[in-house]
Amino acid sequence: MTGAVTTPFASPLPCAVSEQNSRGRRYSEPHPGHRNQFQRDRDRIIHSAAFRRLEYKTQVFVNHEGDLYRTRLTHTLEVGQISRTCAQALGLNVDLVEAIALAHDLGHTPFGHAGQDALAACMEGLGGFEHNIQSLRVVDELETRYAEFDGLNLTFESREGLLKRCSRDKAIQLGDVAARFIDGGQPTLEAQLVNVCDGIAYNSHDVDDGLRSGLISVTECRHNELLAPLFAEVESAYPQLNERRVIYEVVRRMINVQVEDLIAESRRRIHQAAPSSVEQVRKCDKPLIGFSADMARRHQLLKDFLFARLYRHYRVARMVNKMQRVVNEIFHLLLDEPNLMPDQPRRLAAHAAAKYGRRGHARAVSDYIAGMTDRFALEEHRRLFRPEELT
What we know:
Elements: H1 37-46, H2 49-53, H3 72-90, H4 94-103, H5 112-122, H6 131-142, H7 156-160, H8 168-174, H9 180-183, H10 189-213, H11 218-221, H12 228-237, H13 243-273, H14 278-282, H15 293-311, H16 314-336, H17 343-356, H18 358-370, H19 374-385
Protein name: Deoxyguanosinetriphosphate triphosphohydrolase-like protein
Region (Disordered): 1-40
Keywords: Hydrolase
């Protein structure tokens, strides 16, 4: 395995989040007893309906295109695994990191970024749609499992970690959880870490799935600056290995070399800044978790390669176009004809419309669509638009 060996477990940093320095929950609850507060967050996320639905939501390839491609759920689990490893090595709060990782895509639409882009276009002028903000909306409002509050009542730090980006206007509406988008500064080290590990995970598994699908080739990958030395290393060590296993070995090394760089560079930045508390982390001008300049450049080159060769491949583009039409047509029909929605989302839409007008109704429709799986969205589209389908 390439890269220097790092210490797998580091002593907790004074600037890591702990139960003692947590800002707590929106609604007061007794201590969870045999678990800490962030383990409770993690467990609530895993038991949520939104988490289960990730199994049938697109990463790159729509759910029905093949059983072995990543889904939004397997992506989430991979982000969690990579994030935990890095958190242990850096001395961060592993339980908080896991909670943020497991919740970070709860607000994603069906059909991946194609669905998000379509829903964002539909909601333009009606309050907008952004999946990070929708993830926060899911855990704050849309999950309805508990008698005493809406949402999951997660800790402030777990909720804050879901917001990677946010406009100033939206941040004002969200309040303290989005304060850094108004005042400047950084989120916790744990939130910063999950953000970077998300990129490691999706680049790595998109290479794997892209090669499996045949939409990108090993020959193309050998010309990429991050992948080329890894292919050379594997093929030198195992000259008789079949191509499928070569790819697995390369993807393993690809994750490892980025993780090793991330840990080493983050340790250097933390040592240099020497924050003694979470609040000092928040006051930093730049993130303390990140790649070295060289790895950041190579990571971006890989993203550019995948964007040009995989995400814009004509076969992916055809599916994207179809899926965006599905979302667009469902949205506009239900916006104009709310009586076509099932009972529960129709009641929610009527309540939102009475309180906030057309924008409230549109938000309820977008919540309904964002919560759909790929399979349900396709079935709902058939029920709504094809006369021969049962309703």
